[in-house]
């Protein structure tokens, strides 16, 4: 199809034909209406090589597929983002993170190689040893260097359960201290859910094959409480240990779409609803987007925030203060990750690995005077000043100069020129930024 586009005169820039409603992002992909759409229906796991410890997958393979395939074989991905419908392509071309990222980095850092179809219709493979510049330029590039058709990803041994330790926290200072202490530990999973400016629950987890039978909690069963509600109970009951089946752990936030489902089904966590109709949730995000009317879409954009901001660990305290002031939105999802000093669009400013924190804010802010655009802009300005990054699945209001200041375009621009992308693909900014679509 790319070669047909070339022979047909290159009348417009290209993008994938996957409709905007089919993606996990709540952003509207309006740019697709004016571009040449290329069908890429590649959704298979191609190979599991336990000798090389690699799985080869196509771009539309979901995290649900990956765990269903790998976990019964005794393997898993080093970084496996939690929502079932997240795709490999989205996690590479965008970004992926999980509670093991303090050990392994982002999803992209677990990838061994990519295969792309470039602007001239060629199939190109890249890795750290082959076409290395392209390999490091691909993550976060949002399909603006070529079309991803496969990826090889590292796999690591898996065990049956995750031993979870829940620690209620009653001050921001204590929470920051726990992150400082545990991001350098050997705990396999680290995260926190923040319920107010002072109250949160800090969690660490480790895989194990041994579990005390009366302490096993299969949280993924449809009749079980939503995970964030379950976690909140430990603020009253105190520190607790339980064992969660591995696949249930990986998809612990899927059932309630973190806590976004509460806005759609306010009674969804009621025990009667869970027992009777819990098997029906979550609704597919793609279905929700497809069936939304224009009024509902506008209300979401006006009154809701769906943002992940990546900030240096050393600035976690003042970042939480800023989120509280600008949004007053809880819960917040807090996940640490190691940002590796590698070439590309996103890397530490000081040329050495650095620990960062993902602050995930999803829902309706209660801050007095909140207004989506000016409040988000102030949040973006703050994150930029502390050398942080904005996840680009969400609406961004950065100016083009701010965008280029936040994301290092030097390697990206080099590859765009080398691969003749200027007349084949839009730039990242023109695909993800609201300023480019108004």
**SS summary, helix count:** 18
Q: For the CA atoms, what is the radius of gyration?
A: 21 Å
Contiguous uncertain segments of 5+ residues: none
Strand arrangement in the largest pleated sheet: 13-10-12-11-15-16-14-17
Q: Largest beta sheet, briefly?
A: 8 strands, antiparallel
Helix content: 25-40%
Share in β-strands = 15-25%
Structural class: alpha+beta
What's the structural blueprint in terms of helices and strands?
Elements: H1 2-7, E1 14-16, E2 36-38, E3 45-49, E4 54-57, H2 63-70, E5 75-76, H3 88-93, H4 101-104, E6 111-117, E7 123-127, H5 132-137, E8 147-154, E9 156-157, E10 161-169, H6 172-182, E11 189-194, E12 200-208, H7 227-232, H8 234-237, E13 240-245, H9 246-250, H10 261-264, H11 271-277, H12 285-291, H13 294-303, E14 305-312, H14 316-326, E15 332-339, E16 354-363, H15 372-385, E17 389-390, H16 400-406, H17 410-418, H18 428-432
Parallel strand pairs: 1-2
Antiparallel strand pairs: 3-4, 4-8, 5-9, 6-7, 6-8, 10-12, 10-13, 11-12, 11-15, 14-16, 14-17, 15-16
Helix pairs in contact: 14-15
Report on this structure.
- With 438 residues, this protein is α+β, with helices and mostly antiparallel strands.
- 30% of the residues lie in helices and 22% in strands.
- The protein has an 8-stranded antiparallel sheet.
- Strand 11 and strand 12 form a beta hairpin.
- Helix 14 runs antiparallel to helix 15.
- The protein is globular and about 65 Å long.
- The mean pLDDT is 91.
